[in-house]
């Protein structure tokens, strides 16, 4: 250190980073030494030498620090010297604190004696230095306390000199120092808090917003090592008292100065809490939260909304502090602020992620644990509930912003990876319900997996509907307020907002109070939803109309909207179809008269038919069942469009019967029977059998013959439908369609064209290479059946040798096909086509 002191006069001078590193290294090497007494006890023979060397070492460090300041006598230079000393002033070891305080005071004294003129711009890190020295006034060791007060007096003298820098008269530093010593002193070892209060009061002229903030954070530093302090005097309590007095007095006198730095103060408190474990010390550390919130609640809440998510115990405790400690902020204003934040979107207009709504939900969850605020929560319970439900929808699929997710702590990373924002908001919804006494509703959703549905994109509306249904079932007291709140909400916000609000509102239509609502807000809103672009809105509207149809005075008006409901089905798919169909079925059950074959019935059947081949069993069952219900309601005579629609249903129903699903087959046969009764068809007896066609192909042949003979104009529709089902992903349907084609095509021999025959040939040829072996076998059989049938019907005399003569020589006709009569031309191209087909099969 002596060498470094001499080198400090050489050029070039050290850079900022090198100076800071050098000071930190030297300070650590000296301050971490054991106490002089400990070193002497370890080697009593060298006790005197040890003491001499110890003082020489401290003196060398002090000279080095003074030389470094002389090398760079600027605010930045002084800051690089004082900053490394700070942490040692809060050490749990007395001798380390004593060394740190002594070095600080020595540097300040040196600064006072050599105060340069350009230091008049301000003292660097004043708040931190003052705060650390103030805490040491309350140190259990009187020597440290006395020296810390002396350092504060020197600091005050430096600040006064800076203040008088513009004066013409030169100030005597020693006289000013002695005057300040009498003014701020003397040191009171019995009640050092009196000294602390006096110092804080007198330093007011030198404390701006940043200095007050640093002073508060420095006071928190003194609480970190409370649990580690040695016994003797109750040093832990003394440090807590010093910190508490500092925090409360600073905020009492200078609270108005910290408005612009509240976010930094809240962040500092949050970070310090991780290092403070002793309960009483944590209470002291949290004191600024409640004190600041009593005057600047909005700014404090905004700062707390920036706490890292998910909230840990420290963040949660800061939220609860708003109401638990006096002076507390106004509960009503606090809840209104949170509600406003809950109405924000987690994605801003610029596409950036925002944690504000999620943070507000987290803060609300913590406040719900405080009984004293439950009355105020109930006041805005409907708004809170709906805002949270909408936030669940917004947060589905979102993750925390990278700023909140980055952490070197492995355990925290694991916690973040398991944290799903939507699931967290669902937890807050559940907590709110339980606190409002809705335990039955919460249990109902738990049993029905409603909470899980609520946090899934495709099922969110179902979870919300379940919640509303449960609240209606258990007669929740707040439903009327929620109902009247929802009416204007249905028109606001984006699609997610509207879907969540509508899903809740629809279930409330079961309430008796709905009768008081103008029809435009009940029936009118549901009718508007039928033409909405979003399929979910259409399904919700259909359900709402189904609920309204239960009321006698609404039934006729709802049934008048059936055409619009049917049109809405065309753009709906999947599980939504099942929901819509079930609700439509309920409306049809309420029909007390037969339906005519009106266009809307045809449209409804047309909308249902494509879903017969859906991959999901429940979709197929629901659509086939409703199809039969509609047919059952039809009244004869049928329109031509209705007849064509019912005829087009025959082949799909027959083929789906063979898919091997008992439940679906039963629905198909029941619907087929209803179609048959409605149209007075006399279908072959074997049609209603569920036996596999591969064991009763004669029945298939009879059915095909009946279909072609009875509905000849629809024969090509039957063929087209069977060819389409031959492409179905389910092997059972492909096999059934192949068997059906093999029996249908021979029945159409008189009306088949060459192009159609080629289409059948290509389809069967492809099916002979199907992954399913049974499909390949029946495709080959169908080909053989068609060839055999056409060969026999087209050339009946070909079996004997008598028809081997040249027809041109017998009838004197030209062998050219173009010159043949029309009846013979057809047989000629058929023979050629079949011969080519047979050759391709052999290849």
UniProtKB/TrEMBL annotation:
<dbReference type="InterPro" id="IPR055408">
    <property type="entry name" value="HEAT_MROH2B-like"/>
</dbReference>
<dbReference type="InterPro" id="IPR011989">
    <property type="entry name" value="ARM-like"/>
</dbReference>
<dbReference type="InterPro" id="IPR048465">
    <property type="entry name" value="Maestro-like_HEAT"/>
</dbReference>
<dbReference type="InterPro" id="IPR045206">
    <property type="entry name" value="Maestro_heat-like_prot"/>
</dbReference>
<dbReference type="InterPro" id="IPR016024">
    <property type="entry name" value="ARM-type_fold"/>
</dbReference>
<dbReference type="Pfam" id="PF23227">
    <property type="entry name" value="HEAT_MROH2B_C"/>
</dbReference>
<feature type="domain" description="MROH2B-like HEAT-repeats">
    <location>
        <begin position="1"/>
        <end position="69"/>
    </location>
</feature>
<keyword id="KW-0677">Repeat</keyword>
<dbReference type="Pfam" id="PF21047">
    <property type="entry name" value="HEAT_Maestro"/>
</dbReference>
<dbReference type="InterPro" id="IPR055406">
    <property type="entry name" value="HEAT_Maestro"/>
</dbReference>
<dbReference type="Pfam" id="PF23210">
    <property type="entry name" value="HEAT_Maestro_2"/>
</dbReference>
<feature type="domain" description="Maestro-like HEAT-repeats">
    <location>
        <begin position="95"/>
        <end position="329"/>
    </location>
</feature>
<protein>
    <submittedName>
        <fullName>Maestro heat-like repeat-containing protein family member 7 isoform X6</fullName>
    </submittedName>
</protein>
<feature type="domain" description="Maestro/Maestro-like HEAT-repeats">
    <location>
        <begin position="523"/>
        <end position="785"/>
    </location>
</feature>
């Amino acid at each position: 250190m002596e060498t470094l002191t001499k080198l400090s006069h050489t050029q070039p001078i050290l850079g900022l980073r090198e100076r800071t590193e050098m000071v930190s290294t030297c300070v650590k090497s000296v301050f971490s030494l054991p106490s002089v007494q400990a070193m002497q006890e370890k080697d009593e023979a060298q006790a005197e030498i040890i003491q001499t060397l110890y003082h020489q070492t401290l003196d060398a460090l002090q000279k080095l620090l003074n030389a470094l300041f002389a090398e760079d006598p600027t605010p930045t230079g002084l800051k690089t010297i004082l900053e490394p000393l700070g942490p040692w002033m809060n050490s749990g070891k007395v001798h380390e604190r004593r060394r740190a305080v002594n070095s600080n005071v020595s540097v300040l004294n040196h600064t006072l004696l050599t105060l340069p003129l350009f230091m008049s711009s301000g003292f660097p890190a004043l708040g931190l230095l003052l705060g650390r020295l103030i805490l040491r006034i309350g140190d259990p060791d009187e020597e440290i306390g006395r020296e810390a007060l002396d350092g504060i007096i020197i600091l005050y003298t430096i600040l006064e000199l800076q203040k008088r820098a513009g004066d013409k008269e030169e100030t005597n530093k020693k006289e000013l120092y002695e005057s300040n010593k009498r003014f701020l002193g003397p040191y009171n070892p019995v009640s050092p808090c009196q000294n602390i209060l006096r110092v804080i009061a007198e330093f007011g002229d030198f404390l701006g917003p940043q200095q007050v903030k640093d002073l508060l954070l420095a006071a928190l530093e003194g609480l970190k090592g409370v649990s580690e302090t040695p016994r003797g005097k109750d040093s832990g309590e003394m440090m807590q008292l010093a910190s508490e007095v500092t925090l409360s007095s600073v905020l009492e006198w200078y609270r108005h100065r910290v408005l612009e730095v509240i976010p930094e103060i809240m962040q500092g408190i949050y970070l310090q809490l991780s290092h403070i474990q002793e309960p009483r010390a944590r209470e002291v550390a949290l004191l600024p939260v409640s004190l600041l919130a009593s005057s600047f609640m909005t700014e404090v809440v905004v700062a707390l909304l920036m706490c890292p998510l998910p909230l840990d115990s420290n963040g949660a405790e800061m939220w609860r502090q708003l109401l638990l400690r006096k002076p507390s902020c106004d509960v009503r204003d606090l809840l209104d602020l949170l509600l406003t934040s809950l109405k924000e979107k987690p994605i801003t207009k610029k596409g950036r992620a925002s944690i504000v709504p999620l943070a507000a939900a987290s803060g609300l969850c913590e406040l719900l644990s405080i009984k004293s605020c439950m009355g105020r929560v109930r006041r805005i319970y409907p708004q809170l509930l709906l805002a949270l439900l909408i936030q669940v929808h917004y947060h589905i699929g979102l993750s925390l912003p990278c700023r909140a997710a980055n952490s070197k702590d492995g355990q925290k990373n694991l916690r973040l990876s398991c944290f799903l924002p939507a699931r967290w908001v669902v937890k807050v919804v559940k907590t709110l319900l339980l606190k409002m006494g809705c335990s039955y509703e919460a249990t109902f959703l738990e049993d029905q997996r409603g909470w899980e549905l609520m946090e899934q994109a495709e099922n969110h509306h179902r979870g919300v509907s379940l919640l509303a249904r449960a609240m209606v079932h258990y007669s929740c007291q707040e439903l009327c307020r929620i109902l009247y709140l929802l009416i204007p909400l249905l028109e606001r916000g984006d699609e997610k907002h509207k879907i969540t609000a509508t899903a809740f509102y629809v279930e409330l239509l079961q309430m008796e109070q709905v009768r008081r609502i103008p029809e435009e807000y009940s029936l009118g809103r549901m009718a508007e939803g039928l033409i909405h672009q979003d399929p979910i809105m259409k399904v919700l509207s259909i359900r709402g109309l189904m609920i309204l149809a239960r009321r006698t005075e609404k039934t006729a008006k709802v049934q008048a909207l059936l055409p619009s409901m049917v049109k809405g089905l065309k753009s709906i798919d999947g599980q939504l179809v099942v929901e819509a169909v079930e609700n439509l079925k309920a409306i049809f059950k309420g029909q007390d008269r037969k339906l005519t074959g009106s266009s809307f019935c045809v449209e409804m059947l047309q909308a249902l038919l494509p879903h017969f081949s859906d991959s999901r069993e429940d979709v197929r069952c629901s659509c086939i069942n409703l199809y039969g219900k509609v047919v059952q309601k039809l009244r004869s005579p049928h329109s031509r469009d209705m007849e064509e629609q019912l005829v087009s249903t025959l082949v799909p129903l027959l083929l789906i019967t063979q898919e091997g699903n008992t439940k679906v087959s039963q629905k198909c046969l029941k619907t087929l029977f209803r179609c048959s009764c409605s149209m007075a068809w006399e279908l072959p007896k074997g049609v209603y059998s569920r036996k596999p066609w591969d064991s009763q192909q004669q029945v298939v042949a009879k059915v095909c013959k009946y279909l072609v003979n009875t509905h000849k104009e629809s024969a090509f529709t039957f063929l087209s439908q069977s060819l389409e089902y031959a492409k179905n992903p389910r092997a059972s349907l492909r096999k059934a369609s192949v068997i059906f084609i093999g029996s249908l095509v021979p029945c159409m021999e008189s009306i088949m064209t060459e192009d159609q025959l080629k289409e059948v040939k290509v389809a069967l040829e492809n099916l002979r290479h199907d992954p399913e072996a049974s499909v390949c076998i029946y495709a080959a059989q169908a080909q053989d059946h068609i060839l055999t049938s056409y060969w026999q019907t087209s050339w009946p005399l070909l079996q004997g040798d008598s028809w081997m003569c040249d027809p041109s020589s017998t009838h004197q006709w030209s062998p050219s096909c173009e010159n043949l009569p029309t009846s013979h031309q057809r047989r000629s191209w058929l023979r050629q086509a079949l011969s080519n087909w047979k050759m391709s099969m052999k290849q």
